[in-house]
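Encode chain A's predicted structure.
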Amino acid sequence: MNTAIIGPVSPPVKRRYDAGKRRQAAARTRQAVLDAALELFAAQGYAATPMTAIAQRAGVALDTVYASVGRKPELARLLIESAISGSSQAVPAEERDYVQAIRAAEDAEAKIAIYASAMRAIAGRLAPVLSIIQQAAPAEPALAALWRRITDRRAANMRLFAADLAAVSSLRVDPADAADIIWATNAPELYQLLVGQRGWSPERYERFLADTWRRLLLPG
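Encoded structure for chain A:
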C-alpha cells in the first residue's frame, strides 16, 4: 500500500463515556418502575401484583426491574424511601434540604414552620404507600417488620428535632416527651384521617401541625 498517496490511517475515534447521562437514564428507569409499582399495588394489592406486571407497566424488561430496584420487598422499601425523600432514591436525613433549613433557622417557631411544611409534602406522598403496606402487612411479615423499622427511625429523627428545638428555646415538656409528641402527631396515619377521610386540605393539615407543636411544646 502506498501511504504516500493515501496518507496515514487515522485511529478509530473512541466514544467518550458520559456517566452523567447514564445516571440520568438509570434514575428515569427507577422512577418509571416505582410509579408503575405504586399504581399497580394501589389498584390490585401488593400480593396480587407480580413483578412481571410492574415491568410491563414500566415498559422495561423484568431483569431491568430487578437490576434497578431489586425484588418485591426491596421495591416496597424504596417506595417508602422515595415518598420520604421526594426522589427516586433514599436520601439520608441530614442531607435533606428541609433538615438543613431547620438546623440553620435561628428560632424554634421558624424551625417548626419549616418542618410542618415539609411534613405536608412528605405525608401526602407517604399516605398512599402506607395504605398499601397496611393492607399487605398481615400476610407479609417482611413488610410489617419494614414499617416498624421506618417508624423507629422516624422516632430517632424526632429526638434530634426536639433537641434542636431545645437548643434555641425552653420547652414546656422534657425533650424526650417532645420527641414523642412530634412523632405521634406527624404520623402519616393522622394525615390519612384528617386529609384522606375528613376532607382537610394539605394546607390546613400543615397549619394544624405547626399550631399544635407551638402550643404543646413552646412556652406561652
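The domain at 19-89 is CATH 1.10.357.10 (Tetracycline Repressor; domain 2).
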